[in-house]
């Protein structure tokens, strides 16, 4: 039987001419359509169908009596007693795990943890996560001390519906990050259906995140990735305007591609944090000893010029909280951002900038926030980031869609207790940034090309 959504997808993909084909007849015939002696059309249908059936949404997959191999992101921080100090990532994977168990499947979990040097290291063993996982799932979780091999395969085979098995750290094998084909194939033996629910590693072409997918007929994304994709897509495509992006953090160089890509999509870009000083200096301002990338001065001017051509408003800080040392207890004062005295550095935006940015955010209907406005880790220089965060929350309350992503902005949002007051906080750092830059992520393309 050809699934109705398969036909729907055909339509969506404008492959309507294929609809006239009798799929059931092809499916039931003795002909091996994967072989090259078949007519080209039959082969197109075979492989299209294969592709289409592989990318069904999770809700349309039958898990009854099957083993789902899920790539999760359990790269969580542990303290010196191997206790999980932040369980956010484990919690984020629960929806997918519980769903599959409810639907009569068994679950095999695989992840990396930390940066082992290519062999087993006790401090990076995923066995430390078992107590937390049992607690959060409210059921026993078995552990396999390796992630590939005959013994693991036998353990997987013996799993009953409703049971959960966690495999040992994938990165104890250097083949994982190398994207090794044979290792990916060995991993694929641990399940009937492959699910990728680790958006945080989707930008890596690792064995478990991308290469493995080719060994499965049935493969899809978990709820976490689906939500991430839908939320990020919302700020890339179907935006309610005005659309404002806030870009901050330390360096222009690490954000150029994002800013360039955003210029095609947004109405305004608020630039803050250390990277603002490269723009100020490029325009002739005096920035004292503030953070600057002199080799990016030209780029900053190009961005300003391109923004003007496209009618995108660039909102730079007009004032700054400056300090005479990179220290929370340094002497401080507020001054114009382009008149910073020698020996002083800007470590936060000033009150005038905060107010201007707030106004801009309150009149926005879509907001993307990546990067802090100042050195928010120091209490004396956190106000700008907090105020901007509160303005994002206020705008969200008034109906705007807001997405916060990228390591430091997520940390800031958590620090100020705002995570419940924005529309979506992305779990991903690098993957999100690459997605925003318009790059194709290997982990996504492997399932939905
Ligand atoms: P990024 O990883 O590029 O998003 O940068 C985040 C870091 O930028 C944070 O650790 C901030 O402390 C730092 N940062 C933000 N504003 C400034 C500034 N004005 N001077 C120096 N560092 C800053």
Compact overview of the structure:
This protein is an alpha/beta fold. The protein is built from 17 helices and 17 strands. Helix 10 runs parallel beside helix 12, helix 11 crosses helix 12 and helix 13 runs parallel beside helix 14.
Task: Tell me what the structure shows.
With 449 residues, the chain is an alpha/beta fold. The chain is 36% helix and 15% strand. The protein has a 6-stranded parallel beta sheet with strand order 3-4-2-1-5-6, with helices on both faces. Strand 11 and strand 12 (332-336) form a beta hairpin. Helix 10 (256-263) packs parallel to helix 12 (297-310), helix 11 (276-282) crosses helix 12 (297-310) and helix 13 runs parallel beside helix 14 (383-397). The chain starts with a helix and ends with a helix. The model is unreliable at 1-38 and 49-53 (pLDDT under 50). The structure holds adenosine monophosphate (AMP).
Give the ligands present: adenosine monophosphate
How many domain modules?
Answer: 3
Distance between the termini: 24 Å
Number of helices: 17
Estimate the mean pLDDT confidence. Answer: 89
Unreliable runs:
1-38, 49-53
Strand content: 5-15%
Number of strands: 17
Strand adjacency order, main sheet: 3-4-2-1-5-6
CATH class of the largest domain: Alpha Beta
The outline comes out as elongated
- How large, in whole angstroms, is the Cα Rg? 25 Å
Question: Would you tell me which CATH topology of the largest domain applies?
Answer: Rossmann fold
Helix content: 25-40%
Category from helices, strands and their pairing? alpha/beta
CATH superfamily placement of the largest domain: Phosphoglycerate kinase, N-terminal domain
**How would you characterize the largest beta sheet?**
6 strands, parallel
């Amino acid at each position: 039987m050809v699934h109705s959504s398969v036909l729907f997808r055909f339509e969506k993909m404008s492959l309507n001419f294929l609809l006239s084909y009798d799929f059931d007849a092809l499916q039931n015939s003795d002909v091996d359509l994967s072989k090259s002696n078949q007519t080209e059309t039959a082969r197109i249908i075979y492989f299209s169908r294969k592709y289409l059936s592989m990318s069904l949404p999770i809700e349309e997959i039958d898990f009854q009596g099957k083993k789902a191999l899920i790539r999760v992101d359990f790269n969580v921080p542990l303290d010196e007693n191997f206790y999980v100090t932040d369980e956010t990532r484990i919690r984020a994977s629960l929806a997918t795990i519980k769903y599959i168990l409810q639907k009569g499947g068994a679950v095999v979990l695989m992840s990396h943890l930390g940066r082992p040097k290519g062999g087993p290291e006790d401090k990076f063993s995923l066995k430390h996560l078992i107590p937390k996982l049992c607690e959060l799932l409210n059921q026993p979780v078995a552990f396999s001390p390796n992630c590939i091999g005959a013994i693991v395969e036998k353990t997987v085979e013996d799993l009953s519906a409703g049971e959960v098995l966690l495999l040992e750290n994938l990165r104890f094998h250097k083949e994982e990050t190398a994207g090794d084909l044979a290792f990916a194939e060995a991993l694929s033996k641990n399940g009937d259906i492959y699910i990728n629910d680790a958006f945080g590693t989707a930008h890596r072409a690792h064995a478990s995140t991308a290469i493995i997918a080719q060994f499965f007929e049935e493969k899809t994304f978990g709820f976490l990735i689906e939500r991430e994709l839908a939320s990020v897509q919302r700020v890339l495509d179907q935006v309610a305007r005005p659309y404002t992006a806030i870009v901050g953090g330390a360096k222009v160089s690490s954000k150029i591609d994002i800013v360039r890509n955003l210029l095609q999509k947004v109405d305004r870009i608020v630039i803050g944090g250390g990277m603002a000083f490269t723009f100020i200096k490029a325009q002739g301002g005096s920035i004292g000893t503030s953070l600057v990338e002199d080799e990016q001065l030209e780029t900053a001017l190009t961005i300003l010029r391109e923004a003007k051509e496209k009618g995108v408003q660039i909102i730079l800080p007009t004032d700054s909280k400056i300090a005479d040392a990179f220290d929370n207890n340094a002497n401080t004062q507020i001054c114009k951002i382009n008149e910073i005295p020698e020996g002083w550095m800007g470590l936060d935006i000033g009150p005038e900038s905060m107010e201007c940015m707030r106004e801009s955010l309150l009149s926005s209907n879509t907001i993307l926030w990546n990067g802090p406005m100042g050195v928010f880790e120091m209490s004396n220089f956190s106000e700008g980031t907090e105020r901007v965060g509160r303005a994002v929350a206020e705008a969200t309350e008034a109906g705007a869609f807001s997405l916060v992503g990228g390591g430091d902005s997520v940390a800031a949002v958590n620090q100020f207790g705002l995570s419940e007051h924005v529309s979506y906080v992305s779990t991903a750092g690098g993957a999100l940034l690459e997605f925003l830059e318009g790059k194709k992520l290997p982990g996504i393309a492997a399932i939905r090309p």
